[in-house]
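#struct-queue
[09:14] JT: dropping the first one here, sequence first, then the structure tokens:
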Amino acid sequence: MLRKATYKLRVTRRESLYVHDEFDHALMLVEMQGMPLHYEVGVAGEFVSRRSVNFHDRTAGSGKMEGYAVTNFQYGSVYSKFSGRRDGESKTTTGTWETYKGTGKLDTIKGKGTFKVTSGDAPGEFILDMEGDYEL
């Protein structure tokens, strides 16, 4: 089943370390919380919370990223892993995601798709657009 969702993400914690092998090369560990701007209520019921932990390897704002997310609903949770690449010029990150675990009414979920992250209206705020297919 094809699904689309949009979340507003806020950085809740960020740790950065510079590598010092070239100018502006940094590794970051980022924790984010999210709230839906648009999603369709499914078999697991209403949205409760979304949390992700991301690892970034960037030089001058561009580079790869990967991480994990857990999205909790009224009757179950879904765990996903994702990877992508950020373009420092456009400040846009694109990539792919895939589920690896579910609980409750989502315990047999299998899904994968694509995502795009753009800057939000405030510092430390981002908009996540996701789409993909899943089956229960």
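[09:21] JT: and here's the second one, same format:
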Amino acid sequence: MFRLSLKEVSDDDFLIVKKKYQLTLKTKVILLGKGIHTGIKSKIILHPYNKGIVFKKGKEYLKLNPFKVINTLASTDLSLVKTVEHLLASLFLNKIDNVLIEVLGLEVPILDGSIFYFNKVLENNFFILDKKAKTLKLKNITLDNINLNLNYKIFESDILKIYCIQRDLKRNRYFLAYYDEGMSIYPAKTFGYINDYEFLKNNNLANGADFKNTLILSINKSSDFFYFNNEIAYHKIIDFMGDIFTMQIKNIKATFVLINPNHNLNNKLARVIFKNILRIKKNLGLKNF
């Protein structure tokens, strides 16, 4: 079904090859579990594919891009399925840029609330396609005119770097995290405040949240339980990766500084960058970016 034109490569060369060429899955993957917002059991099947990242539900197909996101309140949702950000973040980290995601349910399973189990079934489960991967190099970008400058700074870089400063508004604390493409990222869990429970319930959210899949925080405790330091900020980086990968570009060269990011702002930034890509593509007369 797919062509491979590469000779055997060593383990040390894998990252270089995975960035240079497009990848799909070697074998299909089935994931089962409940949705964190719907609370309903669902199932997704990830199939080997060679036409980008496409979601399928029944007879309907949806090719991913930032403008296909229809909701960003507490998750990143498409018309076919809710809460895609953790799955997309894991695809991004594993450099898999071709997969057919078959949806049997309303929401991508939350699993343990992090990307641990997504990574477990994706790492080393890849097939190298005879197609070159795209690279996006961002230079210093001014975001003042689109009202994103207070939350995002973008600087030129030869590799991907992400800094996150996350303020805990409930107790006026700050969490800091850093990632670059040579690092393994902590499988930080999603989090929420028990004090927000009423709001979430009124908006039909967090129906599947529990102590196994969510860090449940309280403003009344002198300290909260975390699996590691700055877990909140690391989870925000994971969300950012998933939201920015709606552009379907796995090789990004830039330094991002995130200041209290969220799904809504992440999607706005992805749309701005993607729109500029399409404009440049049109001006250059390119059929394939």
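[09:30] RK: nice, looked through the second one.
[09:31] RK: Residues 263-284 form the longest helix (22 residues).
[09:31] JT: good to know. The domain at 11-284 is CATH 3.30.230.20 (Ribosomal Protein S5; domain 2).
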